[in-house]
Design a protein that fits this description.
heterodimer; A: globular; B: 2 strands
Chain lengths: 583, 130
Amino acid sequence: MTVLADRPEVFDDDAAHEHVHAPSGFLKWVTSTDHKVIGKNYTVTAVIFFLLAGAMAMLIRAQLANPDSTFLSQHTYNEMFTMHGSLMIYLFVGPVAFGGLANYIVPLQIGAPDMAFPRLNALSYWLYLGGGTLMMMGFFTTGSAADFGWVAYAPLSNSINTPGAGPDLWIVALVLTGFSAIFTGVNLVSTIYYLRAPGMTMFRMPIFTWNMLVTGILILIAFPVFTSALVLLWCDRHLGAHIFEVQGGGMPVLWQDLFWFFGHPEVYILALPFFGIVTDVIAVFSRKPIFGYRGMVFATISIAALSTSVWAHHMFTTGVVLLPFFSLMSYLIAVPTGIKFFNWIGTMWRGSVKFDTPMLFCIGFLGTFLVGGVTGILLASPPIDFATHDTYFVVAHFHSVVMALVMGAFAGFFYWYPKMTGRMLRESLGKATFWLMFIGTNVTFDPQYLLGLKGMPRRIAEYAASDGYTLLNRISSVGAAIIFVSVALFVVNLIVSWWVPVPAGDNPWDAATLEWATSSPPPHHNFLKLPPIRSRRPVWDKNHPNDRIIEHAKPKLGGMFATPGGAVLLEDVGLDGGPEAER
Amino acid sequence: MKLEAYVLLFVGVFFGCVGLAYWLLSSEDAGSIMLLGTFLLGCVPGGYYLWWSRRMKPRPEDNPDASLEDGAGAVGAFPGSSIWPFVLGGGATFVAAALVFGAWTLGVGLFLAVAALVGVIYESRRGGLV
């Protein structure tokens, strides 16, 4: 186990020659097809969009902190919530996961030298950057940026109700980022199918890689629908196509159908990568194998499949959807998600848990996502949805979900930052970031549930003092300020780690998956040597050659059995038990 | 390769069933057609992979007992660095901007896009194996 085999790879003269003369500096940034450079580009760009969208959120909360507020004009307020949502959803949470972290980490986790289509990968990034830039250019046009909400419902999004270049820029920007996402999806699936190292079977892949495979397939299902719908919307606005307008025989609700057929899987395109990060991080910081590995994989696949069958639960109040079907399918998602929660807790159970920053963010993720998930189950019930639709209850629900994902992103970022840069982030600042973010999230969004139940509608720029919304809105705005401070501390952490570097070493967390077998940051084409891949934890096998092997027994009653060491395993209940011994 | 095929075939079978149930229950066109499209998206590549998996040589990445030597040789051809994705991305952005600002950016965009396509095709003839 301790013997490292040489990676049997071939460098021919041309490739070596090109590597030696690879450009540096700005030219490297522009010409690189290395997944690590592209992944970093994606991450940095997405974080910039995150900061911009966060600044817009602060303006929104400043506006709502007082009744009858005139801090922003109504038009500016509409722009702010539209662009806040658009930047966060389309340009941050998704791209930072599948373009940033996954781009960087997935080839490393499966022992691949690069993504399957490196130039297509680079094109994805440039389309994303071009699209993001176009969307932001809306602020510099005369009619200003898009202001029809991030969902662009017809007929509000037609050329009469929202004229001008800003909305058009929003549409073409999302066509570009749509293609970018589709190309990344193709790249992820191809890479995972074709570039795994010898011995890295599908059921030995880290859960993050599994989740990125499923995310890639979801991208291929969802994004083409949205991208085509945007082209149709553009045709409506400029060519008089009347597809989403009643005049001329069109159907406004068709936009909602097309949008949410993308929009709901998109939620899981955002969520699944962070589920993967959380799974891997919890296992590392509990110093245990992932509990119920195959259960996790099947839960991921089930969540993805169901998520594409529930799109119209966003449209209950339109009155034209099949309520029982969509309600039932929405409820069903709770089952695989519950399995995931069970397995996350099972992974921690009787582990020697270390509360480093990535682990804290994972635990914060569990709590926050649970709140978002449970209120999601409430909203899957049509009567409750009828009462709370378009109120702050829904806003609070999806912000609980998305802030959980942001915590997952921070977990991944703190966890892999040493691998990406060779430097550590400061633990003290990281922990302060976590606690402020966790407290801020709850202070911001918990009052919004109450506001929703009191009847405060979404997307209003003003409310009267007599409405009784003032106190809860003020608390919510204070919470937003706390989140702002936590993100500022994160930026300070980045600056400190850059100025006063603390070297990370190859494997600072004593992690088990393959990305930790190479140097930090990894060399060109990733691995000089690969360890033998004999289990799901090849690096653990290499670093802990005398660790005891726990054989998988055939599951007995309930699947629970005690190992001689006293650790109770429920690993792969009812699903495993084959001859393959995992550590 | 079989498992990879089954993952995609599952997508096809699941959405085939869901699509059929949805069509029978709702008779709604848009959703049914999207589910039909998803059914095809799973079945077509999944079926191809399954067909191919029975004809291809066993791969070391599918073998739990494979050693690294079993994967000896070139993994594939990877380009070192390339300016053309940047040029093509820029071209596509200018073409997209033309849909908003009018035809004056279209010429720039198309020029960049065509230049990138020509460039990337020529570039494919060099580069090495890794």
